[in-house]
Structure formats: structure tokens, C-alpha cells
Specification:
The complex is a heterodimer of chains A (114) and B (189).
Chain A: H1 4-32, H2 45-75, H3 83-103, H4 105-108
Helix pairs in contact in A: 1-2, 1-3, 2-3
Chain B: H1 2-21, H2 31-41, H3 43-64, E1 73-80, E2 83-87, E3 97-98, E4 100-104, E5 109-115, E6 120-124, E7 129-133, E8 139-143, E9 149-155, E10 167-173, H4 175-183
Parallel strand pairs in B: 1-5, 4-10
Antiparallel strand pairs in B: 1-2, 2-3, 5-8, 6-7, 6-9, 9-10
Classes of the chains: A mainly alpha (114), B alpha+beta (189).
The structure holds copper (II) ion (CU).
Chain lengths: 114, 189
């Protein structure tokens, strides 16, 4: 499980999980009608649920980065090269940026057809 | 959009050819800087621009294009192995059209995609939309042709041996011709 190549893609695996969760919830919410009423700030329950999911996803990816960095410092002395460690860190930072960019739409885009 | 892609293609290929053919081209720029310029500075603004353009278009089709929901014309698109059938619930006296979808130009059209057998996918690349037609389920997709004309469409979900031939044509007509064309009173070829 701790294969270094798997750890390289770990942050984007978490990103994909968040995407799947957000997409499935949005589709389900639209079909069930969670977008129809306003509960607070003129926003629907569906929007609040999606925002919470995106924040959880973002926290999970930042957590992944923190975990990878701590692991890197622990194992640095045992490894012959730190190249993969650097790649993991950069990939995780990329995943944080793409999460913020891709999922920001839950705050302001139309969620469902009329 | 076409000219933008042309400019980018020329730029990238020009840099590539220069690096291969012109002696010592690009040596003055460090490797790290090449990666940062070519890998981040060039693509990020392009992709950001395209993403926000797509957001704006999506919002336009969902809301801005119509002030009332009934201004959207609903058309039922039913996929089956291996053809598409189009019917017009709101146009009385219109027959079912096979592999030929008539739409009015300059009006937002809502496709209700359904399937009689397996999963198909309705796709008209020039009109931007693509959505799966799933048995027992109605998926909705909005498309809009600004100009009258003919647009190619195809099934884009593999659905059996006839999949590759499961094409259809979209004809966008002037608003005043549309009803006659759909009800069959208007000769066209
Ligand atoms: Cu098909």
C-alpha cells in the first residue's frame, strides 16, 4: 500500500473522491428537489450541503499534504533520493489549487436546470 | 476560438521547431524557467479563460437566454440501437423524425434524452452539448444554434455494433420556417 508511486497520486485520488461525492450529491439533490427552497441567505439546502462537502474535501487534501510532508521528514534519512518526495509535495499543492478552482462553482453557479 | 487555437498551436510548434532546428535556441533560459513559463504561465490563463467562458455560456443557457421557462422549446430525443428519434411534444401535428433534428435558430432548445434499450449519448459538437440517454430516465440538456444551418450529431456512448453509424443531423431553421418544417408542410432536402 505504501508504494511511493501510489503516494504520488494520493492527493489527486482524494480530489477525485471529492469530485465524485459533489457530482453525485448535486445530481441527487436536483432530482429530489433540495434546490427549491431557501433556508438562509437566499440559498438552498443543496448549496449548503455541497459547500460543506467541498470544504471537507479541501481539508482532506490539505491534510494529505501535511501527512506527506511529515512522512517525508521521517523517511528522508532512510532513502537514497528525495526526488519522489518533492514530486509528492508539488502534486499535493497542485491538487489543493485545482480543488479551490474546480469546486468554487458550488458557491455561485446555478445548481440545477429550472 | 478557432483563431485563438491557431495562434497557440503556431506558438507552441514554433518554439518546438526552433528548439530542434535553431542552434543554441533557448539556452539563455534556465530549465526551471522553461518549465514555469511553458507549464504554468502559458496554460493557466488560457485554461482559466476557457473555464470562465464555459461557466458564462452555461449560465446563459440555464437562465439568461430565457426570461420564462416556457420560452424553452422541449424536444424529446429517444435513442435506440442504432438510430435517434426526435419528437416535438409542444408542436401539435408533428410526426416523429428519425435521425434528423429540426430546431429553430436563435431559441434555446431543451433536449429530453431517453433510451429504449441501452445507454446512448446525444452529442452535437458544434452546439456544445452532450448528455447520456439512459433507459428509464430523462436527462435534460440545453442547446442553442445562433445561426440557421446544418450541424452534425452522433451517439457518443458505445452501444453495440451499429454505434459508429448512429449519426444524425441537426437543421437549424429560421423561426418563421420552423413550425412548417417540423409538421412536414415545408419541402426540404
Ligand atoms: Cu448509441
Amino acid at each position: 500500500m505504501r508504494h511511493p508511486l501510489l503516494l504520488v497520486i494520493l492527493a489527486f485520488v482524494v480530489w477525485s473522491g471529492t469530485f465524485l461525492l459533489v457530482y453525485a450529491t448535486q445530481a441527487t439533490g436536483c432530482s429530489v428537489g433540495w434546490h427549491n427552497d431557501e433556508i438562509a441567505f437566499w440559498r438552498s439546502p443543496l448549496r449548503f450541503i455541497l459547500i460543506v462537502l467541498v470544504i471537507i474535501g479541501l481539508v482532506a487534501i490539505v491534510g494529505t499534504l501535511a501527512w506527506l510532508r511529515r512522512r517525508n521528514t521521517l523517511t528522508a534519512a532512510l532513502e537514497t533520493s528525495t526526488f519522489l518526495d518533492d514530486v509528492k509535495t508539488y502534486v499535493a499543492i497542485g491538487a489543493i489549487f485545482s480543488s479551490a478552482f474546480c469546486f468554487a462553482g458550488v458557491f455561485w453557479l446555478t445548481l440545477c436546470p429550472l | 476560438m478557432l483563431w485563438g487555437s491557431f495562434a497557440l498551436f503556431t506558438l507552441v510548434l514554433g518554439l518546438f521547431l526552433a528548439a530542434v532546428l535553431v542552434p543554441r535556441f533557448g539556452r539563455g533560459v534556465s530549465q526551471t524557467r522553461w518549465i514555469i513559463l511553458g507549464g504554468l504561465v502559458l496554460p493557466l490563463p488560457v485554461l482559466t479563460g476557457l473555464t470562465f467562458y464555459a461557466f458564462a455560456e452555461g449560465e446563459f443557457l440555464l437562465k439568461g437566454a430565457v426570461s420564462e421557462a416556457d420560452e424553452v422549446l422541449e424536444i424529446r430525443a429517444t435513442g435506440r440501437m442504432w438510430q435517434w428519434q426526435f419528437s416535438y411534444p409542444s408542436v401539435s401535428g408533428s410526426p416523429v423524425h428519425t435521425d434528423l433534428l429540426h430546431i429553430p435558430a436563435g431559441r434555446t432548445v431543451e433536449i429530453i434524452a431517453e433510451s429504449e434499450d441501452v445507454i446512448h449519448s446525444f452529442w452535437v459538437p458544434r452546439l456544445g452539448g452532450k448528455i447520456d440517454a439512459v433507459p428509464g430516465h430523462s436527462n435534460r440538456l440545453r442547446i442553442r444554434a445562433d445561426q440557421p444551418g446544418r450541424y452534425g450529431g452522433i451517439c457518443s456512448e458505445y452501444c453495440g455494433t451499429g454505434h459508429a453509424g448512429m449519426q444524425f443531423e441537426v437543421q437549424a431553421h429560421r423561426q418563421e420556417d420552423f413550425r412548417e418544417v417540423v409538421t412536414g408542410g415545408f419541402r426540404h432536402d
